[in-house]
Amino acid sequence: MSELPSPPAGARALVVTVSDRAHRGIYPDRSGPLLVEALAGLGFDVPAPVVVPDERGEIAAAIRTAAAGGVDLVVTTGGTGLGPRDVTPEATRDLLDRELPGLAEALRAAGRDKVPTAVLSRGLAGTVGATLVVNLPGSTGGVRDGARVLGPVAAHAIAQLRGDTDHPAAGGGG
Predict the structure, then answer these.
(1) Domain range spanning residue 17?
(2) Residues 167 and 128: beta-carbon distance below 8 Å
(3) Helix 31-41 to helix 140-161 angle, to the nearest 10 degrees?
(4) pTM higher than the cut 0.70
(5) I need a labelling partner for 142 at 20 to 30 A (CA). Which of 2, 28, 49, 105 fits?
């Protein structure tokens, strides 16, 4: 298997864990630290996760603050299901300048053979200014599958968002 492309120098990522219970300390955040580890492994500078409750305004504020601060990639984990408090896609949609439906579809498809309910995730992907924003499920399996999808495409997407519009010779879709 070929080595994954590295993000541009100095690329920063932020993980936002969306969970009422983790926010209140009822149980530890498991998906956020796993995602931090995966993104760091891809070459991003990434701090500890920000944990917010399942509140549309707080989710949007975390994404907005990261984008305004020049973070290249924001990945949320949690709040993408069908539960009454699952509002991460709505909070994200409020902010997106451009949606990336192909990325969201690839993220859902990544886990569906192992977990058929993966297709019920309502997660979105898109851009807020020059920041790539991706919603992942709150499960550790969903985070692992999502990181595998992001690995080959995140560096190229961020380079484009930074203004590098050269396309690799293998080409396609950009």
Answers:
(1) 13-161
(2) no
(3) 40
(4) yes
(5) 2
Q: How far is CA 119 from the centre of its chain?
A: 17
Both tokens of 119, joined, read 């297709």
Q: What domain count does the chain have?
A: 1
7 in a domain, yes or no?
no
Q: CB under 8 Å to 137, separation ≥6 — which residues?
A: 31, 77, 78, 80, 81, 118, 121, 123, 143, 146
The answer to whether residues 91 and 74 touch, using CB atoms and an 8 Å cutoff, is no
| 22: Cα within 13 Å, side-chain hemisphere | 21
Compute the C-alpha angle 163/104/15, nearest 5°: 70
Task: For residue 51, tell me if it sits in a domain.
Answer: yes
Q: Residues of 54-89 as b/e, b for ≥16 C-beta within 10 angstroms?
A: bbeebbbbbbbebbeeebbbbbbbbbbbeeeebbbb
Q: Is residue 172 part of a domain?
A: no
CATH number at residue 128: 3.40.980.10
- Averaged over successive runs of 10 residues, the pLDDT of the chain (174 residues) comes to 78 98 96 98 97 98 98 98 96 98 96 89 97 97 95 95 72 51
